[in-house]
Amino acid sequence: MATIPGPRAPVPIDYLVDIATEAARFFSRDRETHAALLLEVAKADPPGSLLPFTMNDFFLYLQQRGFPNAQSQGVLIERLLNRMVDARMITDHGQQPGFDIFGHRLFTDDAQLRTQSQSEGYLWLAEPLGAGLIKPAYGSVTVPIAGLSKATGDERIGSGLVLDEFHVLTNAHVVNDMTLKDEIEHSRIMPPAGPAPVREGSGVPIVSFCAHSRVDVAVITVHPAEGQPGLPVLGGVAFRPPQWPDETYVFGYPPIARTSAPHMVCERGEVVNGSISDYSTDDEFFVYSATTRPGNSGGPIVAQDGRVIGLVAHDVLAEGSSADSFYRGIPGHVIVDALTAMGFGDLVTLEDWS
């Protein structure tokens, strides 16, 4: 269980994950679950009825589940539940008569809680928990890809997204333009919830890579030494196309002056056009406003719902123009199609909203 925050202390994100997960179960419309919970909180519905619990009922339930100061965190928990209402995970059925505060009656919108694609892990909570969840979650599986430029021999760096213990997604130009170092370094970012990942040594040895012939995507394959773990993974990662309303979280390892090691950076912005065609190749891309620098190439672009909507791509300047380039991304569905064509389709999931 997460560390319980003091009255004035910052609230750990893993505590909020635990509370939200308990709320999803407690306010369920499932009759068997509801009947069992009525016994836990010593409450009864009229025969044949299924009445929503109140927030106050939830505080009593939390205390019995090992959250002894739930009542003192009432305002905090109420805000979290309201964010779950805004995300359409929970439906508010109004105030129960006789309650001044914490009397709102709630039901979980079971069909809206999570899709099959996000059924593992905690990314289904990305919308109500926001940046506090998304940044460490994807930061923990965004890794630096280091090497030497084939053109100049200078040190270069790119970024990649861990797909499973043995594979990393990145750009084709990252692997094609560099002589890669011998291993993929672990991310130094810890995940926001769950057990701490096992990270032996500085990284995992690279054994090969495969780049798409046209789309700027590639997969690096790693293999740990015997008896050693692979790369830590993140459950519930799903890909989808970018959309006009999307916020963007762009992850990567742009070099930072006066540092001797790569550091993960996350920039925020929004989609500014979700689908554009390249006039020379007819390839689809999208543009976004989050600042992107050299070293971000291959890093994931994540939306506010915790789904990957793209991969950072090369910036392209208009010939003869001194204007700044747009920040371009390879759309999520294009990535999935390319990986499927390369034989890596089993490593990625395209969100189908089932």
Structure notes:
The chain folds into 3 domains: 101 residues, Arc Repressor Mutant, subunit A (Orthogonal Bundle); 84 residues, Beta Barrel (Thrombin, subunit H), CATH 2.40.10.10; 113 residues, Thrombin, subunit H (Beta Barrel), CATH 2.40.10. 23% of the residues lie in helices and 26% in strands. The protein is an alpha+beta fold. The longest helix is centred in the N-terminal third of the chain and has 14 residues. Helix 1 packs across helix 4. A 7-stranded antiparallel beta sheet has the order 7-4-5-6-10-9-8. A 6-stranded antiparallel β-barrel has the order 11-12-13-16-15-14. It has a 3-stranded antiparallel beta sheet with strand order 1-3-2. A hairpin with a 6-residue loop joins strand 12 and strand 13.
Describe, in short, the structure shown.
It comes from Mycobacterium parascrofulaceum ATCC BAA-614. InterPro entries: Peptidase_S1_PA (IPR009003), Peptidase_S1_PA_chymotrypsin (IPR043504). The chain has helices spanning 13-26, 31-40, 55-64, 74-86, 110-113, 126-129, 131-139, 172-177, 332-342, and strands spanning 53-54, 90-95, 104-108, 142-149, 155-164, 167-170, 178-180, 183-185, 203-211, 218-222, 247-252, 265-277, 284-288, 300-302, 308-312, 327-331.
